[in-house]
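retry 2 of 3: previous attempt timed out while embedding magnesium ion. Reduced batch size to 1 and resubmitted. Inputs unchanged:
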Amino acid sequence: MDMDMDNPDSKRKAPRRKGDDRVILHFDLDCFYAQCIENANPHLKSVPLGIKQKSILATCNYVARKHGVKKLMGIQEAKRLCPDLVLADGEDLSPFRDVSKQIYSLLKSYSWNGRVERLGLDEVFLDVTDVVAYNLGLVNHHCLEESWFCLSREDPERGFAFDAREVKGCVWPPDFVSDRENEGTDSLRLRLLLGSHLAFYLRQQMEGLGYTSACGISTNKLLAKLAGDRNKPRNQTTLLSSHSPVPFLDPLPLRKIPGIGGKTITAMKSLLKTDDDDDGLTVHNARTNPAVSPFALERLLAGSGGGGEKGIGRKVWLLLHGIDGSEVKPARDVPRQIGIEDTYRGLTQLSQVRAGLVQITTSLLRRMHVDLLDDFDAVTPPISPAPTSVGKGRWLAQPKTLRLTTRPYHSPSEWDKFEYNHGRVSKSVALPRFVFDLNIEPESIAERLVEGTLMPLFHSLNPDKSKLCIGLLNVCVTNMDRAKESSRGGDIMAAFQRQREVEEIRGVAFADEPPDGEEKAEDTSDDTEVEWVEEEDEQDGVRCRLCGCVIPVFAVEAHGRWHELDEGWVEPQGG
Ligand code: DGT
Ligand code: MG
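retry 2 succeeded.
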């Protein structure tokens, strides 16, 4: 029975344990940027390594962490703690994105139901309920130690041997004693046990690519993510929550709960009448306080003042009890659009604009190869030397539209006067076909695209050259034309060509394109993905295109992750 939202006493009832029948894995790569750099420079594996972005460390390897160096620490402080710290530049995110995609593709290839969701660059949720249920039926209870985990319904020999007597890796609670008598019938424990062996196998596959990780195994996303945090690095934790996850959650600081952000915590402190700092305020404090009920939280966080969505109080209250019904989202094989942009402190010369466009377009073409070619992963080393896909791969989808966006430069003193997007204009045209030619280097294609298409677009968006002072350039490809499944085995380029010809014969205009010559304000309605300024920003901060907040450069990634949480988890209230 659902809780009665209007009854403050309903918090005392045992909440319904929604989603208990699932098995969810959460993978988080260890010191991600540092591992990427180490794999490209193996001699760095044994030394303390920090990855520098501006004046802070985006992350550091675990050798450095032993010296007290921490993520997001200032460089000076880190050097003081560890004078031997080696610093590597982490400003260019492209190599990290490439590895992220490889890891994601690997995990996706083991999923049966396609529920594989990324969180940021180095975390992935997998809903393996179906794989585990299938293998539950195969367990031979008379010979658990010689079990076989089947990874394919079609090919029973594709799998791995494992010992089904024990959970693989760490368990929580650490003193968990298996109820041997009920082992055969305790299906939840056995399903989590199977999940733990699958998680271990998948972690080994990632290690084959050179990347170690931590993993949490539980019945929902919230608990899987928190369980994985218990034992890091290169380890995994199964939350054997056969009774209740409350003892696991209670000691954690409230701020550790994904979906409970800074604003929610501030509001809750007023409700709890506490001055505890964020570390002192635990889930237990909040959960057991008599003032806390779904109804009180709703009044506090939603509607007038709170500003949260309807139902937020109930959601937060459920999180405090370890209940999270949110689904692991199905994987998308191709993005809706790919855009790269850069900001400038005022470009006044056309030659500067041209150079900027060539740089952005080259990055964009590389990104298209990573995201839209089917066997890119198979042909590319995990990182460095710079991936090249010349002559390789087949297009899973081809964007049909190219969009250029520009915005004038606004100095920080003008930020109060102008909206971030003030003066932002875009124009779209059909994307020339030569960009899909895999026999030409991206740099050459970029030069041709800039000269023949993007510079003319730029001129029509910015006709008055005497006032030229460009603050932002964005090049985006969109309107994806997906290869039909049936043509994947055949000649995909020919299939795309046939499709185009049919459209042309029928007089079908490429969708999303404004009539030729028309300028339009940037339409961000389709921009559901957080699109950050990827390259170096010359100012002190960048403004988030989704919420308009100005974020220090070092916090951009975290802020992006905050928006991503927004999609699948309880609406965050800040953070
Ligand atoms: P871990 O998981 O504790 O072993 O360490 P990391 O480095 O994998 O940290 P994680 O998983 O929180 O984030 C993955 C990568 O994302 C990390 O290597 C650097 C980047 N990152 C995360 N949060 C921030 C942030 O607030 N600022 C910046 N600049 N980068 C961040
Ligand atoms: Mg990580």
